[in-house]
Amino acid sequence: MATLLLSAPRRVRRGEAFEIKVLVSHVMETGYRRTETGIAIPRDILRLLVCSLNGEEIVRTEIHPAIAANPFFAFWARADRAGTATLTCACTGDGGYTAAASASVEVD
Amino acid sequence: MARRPGRLAAAAFLVAMRMALADGIPPGERLSGRVQMGAPLRAMQDDDAANPATLWVLEGEALWNAGTGATGKACADCHGDATMSMKGVAVRQPSFDATAGRPVDLEQRIQRCRAERQGGTPWTFESRELLALTAWVARQSRGLPIAPDEDARMEPFVESGRILYERRQGAVDLACRHCHDLHWGRRLAGNPIPQGHPTAYPLYRLEWQGLGSLQRRLRACMASLRAEPYPYASQELVNLEAYLMRRARGMTWESPGVRP
Question: Does this complex have an ipTM over 0.90?
Answer without folding.
Answer: yes
